[in-house]
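MODEL INPUT / OUTPUT PAIR
PAIR INDEX: 1
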Amino acid sequence: MRNAALIAVLGLAALSTSACSTLKGAAIGGAGGAGVAAATGGSVEKGAAVGGVGGAVVGTIVD
């Protein structure tokens, strides 16, 4: 759970300091993926990685 909290804080910090949609998407996806993995008993690290990559792709496409 500590990893999920750290990832969420880092994601929020990236959102507040960056205007880049790719980084915003990666941060949101990473935090979301970590949260879902923690809630379902999965690997927080893998959830954050998958969510971050997916979020970065969506952020790039949307922008």
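PAIR INDEX: 2
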Amino acid sequence: MSVDHNGGANHEPELSDSLRTFGAVLKALRDEAGLTQEEFGPQVRYSAHYNAKIEQGKRFPPKDLVGRAETVLDPIAGRVLGAATRTLTRKAGLASWFRPWAGIEEDAVSLYTYECRAIPGLLQPEPYIRAIFDRRLPPLSEGQIEQQVAARLERQQLLSNRPNTAFSFVIEQALLERRMGGTEVTRSLLDHLLDQGQRRNVEIQVMPLRQEDHAGIDGLMYLAETPHHDWLGYSEGQQSSILITDSKDVSAMLQRYGKLRSHALGREATVRLLEQMRGAL
């Protein structure tokens, strides 16, 4: 079975009420303690600008903020912030049609990704993420951009939070050659890919520009192995997505992905190419 999720006119999520609520609670507690953002920031070891974004509901609070704030404020404030944290909608910045797959990702024991449009979201450094959303049409507001950047960075915690999950990525070289966002953004992207590729549970392979035997002509594909060792597939279009559960269809995707991996550069050759591209910038 394939389930189509069409975002329609509401594919860009609004600012999360839970994030705004957390920000308002943090601001009230800070004000009650008689601290300005400039005074509070250094004490919790985050900049005043970063804390302002949290208070405005534009960024997810870091996991250690509550503990640091409790030390600066008092235990009661810590408990209040802890309760507010539990109300957060952590997928608020993700498009509605992507959220079902994001939930599947969180439990997967294997995740395979082939991308031919943009660098996979789990591997995008913040400058690259911003370059993408800055170019989104129709244009996004600053608040929408900040929320979606925060949500994508939060989603990327999967790579470190799930060390026993095997992540495989096949990326078209053309995506790197495009230099989305300019030279500096591309430099940060190449550095980030080299860093993430060092993780034991992450394998990154680049598909060369010239490859006569290419199994990805049907477009991008995402595949996930569940804790029960069933496989699910996922694909995207314009403001829509398809969750693929039929075993025959998923099997075909797995065959194509296996072929893609066999024709892409191996891990060591990919590292050499990324380093070569980094040096040529």
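PAIR 2 NOTE: The two ends are 46 Å apart (CA to CA).
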